């Protein structure tokens, strides 16, 4: 299928494109983002496709996103994603909204009987007999200008997605399939999935299952503090202190210790941030 391709990097072009497509009923959406140097995903590219067009929107060049956000929440336009979770997280953390309604092709495949979560590449190969390149999976999407291969990769992520949507949308037929699809899709709209939750940060610490009692209690407090610091400074948690160090600190300081807290940190200036947490924990024992 032949499509027209456009790269949109101005407010005027974005508004014009969306105004020209006010009668859409569905649009495929994908994003590219970076998270290596930050806590929050940095949205670097938004790709969208219709039956006969595909566009790349440069969010690093756009200043007025209102037309796009209006499209995202337009109840008459289905937003098609594949494995939407990370895309929705990037969109939510950038714009504080979740697109709706959503059709997730990975969910559709699961409901239709896939025995595992199919990747986008596997879905396209199985449904369209097209083998996609993976060369740009770990590329630097923040760097400008984007290369030709980056842009081609980005277009592939939505053009074939729309085509798969056309194949799957009418295959969910039975009442049970519709119930399952709705249940799984409704979970995508839960803001708690995308908003930071320092209270539950300990659940993502590798090695936590080896701790019990006071050690686990302290780990929960340390993980919460690490999350709060990472959020405040918008930096990766591992740059504050690694999981292994958190486990070691919880083991050592769940009771009074003569060791220096600093030795557990690659970045020694982070240690004083955690000392009050440990002091208060020990004082309450």
Automatic annotation (TrEMBL):
GO terms for molecular function: 3'-5' exonuclease activity; nucleic acid binding; nucleotide binding. It comes from Wohlfahrtiimonas chitiniclastica SH04. SUPFAM superfamilies: HRDC-like (SSF47819), Ribonuclease H-like (SSF53098). Residues 5-173 form the 3'-5' exonuclease domain. One of its GO terms (biological process) is nucleobase-containing compound metabolic process. Pfam families: DNA_pol_A_exo1, HRDC. It comes from the Bacteria. This is Ribonuclease D.
